[in-house]
Amino acid sequence: MRSIKVFLSLIALGLFAACVSTHGPTAGEMPKPKIALVLGGGAARGFAHVGVIRVLEQEKIPIDMIVGTSAGSLIGAIYASDMNSFELEWTAFALEKDNIFDYAIFSTVTAMGPVKGDKLEEFVKAKVPVANIENLKLPFAAVATDLNRGTRVVIDRGPVARAVRASSAIPGVFNPVEHQGRLLVDGGVIDNIPISAARQKGADIVIAVDISENVVNFNITNLIDVVIQSANIMFNENVKYKKKDADVLIAPSIGDVGMLDFTQKKRCMQAGIDAAQKALPDIRKAIQVWEAKTASRKTI
Predict the structure, then answer these.
(1) Degrees, nearest 5: CA angle 239-241-243
(2) What are the Cα distances from residue 116, in Å, to 81, 102, 174, 260, 270?
């Protein structure tokens, strides 16, 4: 009888140990926050995102997801595919306007913008070997705008290249993109710095990169310039209030770089590096504060 009781006690202890090992951190193990990197839109200024990512990787700041709009979705998707900032930098240096802007014929009746967008999609396919977002190494989402309904669309499944193309389709410049049953344009129309989208996806800490600062531009000479500048003003306005919701905001000093100026890549990347390094103490503090609050809740 005694041996049966001992046997049953051992089984019970085994089941208890199994439950403990499969649910959350073990005793004494510090829980870790889910950290999201949010990359805002800003066309050519997006090269600054590369510098930010380089610093976060070198400093071993854990990134659990990337959410990007427009240029942020492009840089974010490339990094999420292999999580290698060195390769990301090389890819960024190889990116030129001709890789993105494929001008359609203005007289085409069906055209809703002078730029088709096929080139951008093909560029992403060439640089991101994984076809679908679900299979990227790092969880990723691209933010676009539903042109018919006027709502934000968070694309976290399906073809990577199509999602980036939709998120980057500046209205009036790029043709809108038909994707997942919707007609989509640039996410910056609704949410140029999608902090709330990252929160909805479970982020505990949001590190956001704002590249929309300063809309002053006296070099406007053609229709494309007019549309780009109008979009830039609109994107900047919707960032003003939303960026306050970030735990840490990184704002590289590139406000004088033109939206289509691809000659300033190195400077933008360096500005991203400088801004990220300056933000490191705030990032580490945000992580420490979260860990302390979580630990205190566990002891109650």
Answers:
(1) 60
(2) 25, 6, 6, 17, 31
pLDDT given for residue 112 in this prediction:
77
Q: Is the dihedral of CA 258, 85, 174, 233 positive or negative?
A: negative
70 is catalytic: yes
CA 64 to chain centre: 11
Using one digit for the tens of pLDDT, what is the confidence trace for 188-202?
999 999 999 999 999
Each residue's pLDDT tens digit, 154-189: 999 999 999 999 999 999 889 999 999 999 999 999
Q: How many other C-beta atoms lie within 10 A of the C-beta of residue 118?
A: 12
Q: Are 144 and 104 in contact (CB under 8 A)?
A: no
Digit-coded pLDDT (tens) for 100-137 = 888 765 544 456 778 889 999 999 999 999 999 999 99
> What six digits make up the tokens of 273?
């590096």
H/E element, 296:
helix 265-299
Whole-angstrom distance, CA of residue 152 vs CA of residue 154: 7
Q: Is 225 helix (H, G, I), strand (E, B) or coil?
A: helix
User: Where do we find the tokens 């193309």?
Assistant: 165
Is residue 186 flagged as an active site residue? yes
Rounded distance between C-alpha atoms, residue 267 and residue 270, angstroms:
5
Euclidean distance between CA atoms 295 and 299, whole angstroms: 7
Q: Which of 146, 186, 191, 210 is catalytic?
A: 186
Q: Identify the sign of the CA torsion 220, 253, 214, 171.
A: positive
